[in-house]
Amino acid sequence: MRTMVNLAVIALVTVVSGCTMTMAPPGQGSAAMMQPQVETRVETKAIPVVERRSAIRSTGYAVISVQPSDVDAQQRLLAIRASKLDAYRGLTEQVYGQYLDATTTVADMAVLSDTFRTQVEGVIYGAKVVSIAPVGEDTYETTLSLDQDVVDDLRALYLASLASRS
């Protein structure tokens, strides 16, 4: 218990000794007490600000063995190209949206057929290839990135073209 009291006294003395009080000389009013008597000097270091720009990403896939060629190297090149086009399709969906046409036929409270068709149309420019890599033994994966500023420009151009059609 005595050790706890000693530690408390040491902590109190340490805290109080870090504080100083300035008293005004006799004859001066309380206005002098309001003025700080302590000089403060603060040094700052310039911290570089890293601007992070958001971007959208899309990944496309293509199977090597289904490419129309008898030469393995050409099949690989075609798969890379197809995976890149698939990634571009994904970017286009994200920028412009996707047209969806769906038809469902119901008879006697049972679904007879369910048909979906999708269509994507748009212009993409400024996309950057992030990676092209084989996945497994028979697939290629391509990832593309599109800066948010370009996305905003593309959408503005699209809306302007819609307005001019009307």
Outline the structure in words.
There is one protein chain. This protein has helices at residues 2-17, 30-34, 72-96, 148-165; strands at 55-63, 99-107, 110-119, 128-135, 139-147. It has a domain at 56-96 and 123-165. It has 4 helices and 5 strands. With 166 residues, it is an alpha+beta fold.
Short description:
The chain has 166 residues and is an alpha+beta fold. 39% of the residues lie in helices and 27% in strands. β4 and β5 (139-147) form a beta hairpin.
Cα radius of gyration in angstroms:
35 Å
Note the run of SSEs as H and E: HHEHEEEEH
Stretches where pLDDT falls below 50 for ≥5 residues?
15-24, 30-37
Distance between the termini: 87 Å
Helix content: 25-40%
Average pLDDT rating: 80
Indicate the overall shape: extended
Name the structural class: alpha+beta
Estimate the strand proportion. Answer: 25-35%
In total, how many beta strands? 5
* Largest sheet properties: 3 strands, antiparallel
List the strand order in the largest sheet.
Answer: 1-5-4
Sequence-ordered SSE layout with sheet pairings:
Layout: H1 2-17, H2 30-34, E1 55-63, H3 72-96, E2 99-107, E3 110-119, E4 128-135, E5 139-147, H4 148-165
Antiparallel strand pairs: 1-5, 2-3, 4-5
Protein traits:
single chain, 166 residues, alpha+beta, three-stranded antiparallel β-sheet, two-stranded antiparallel ribbon
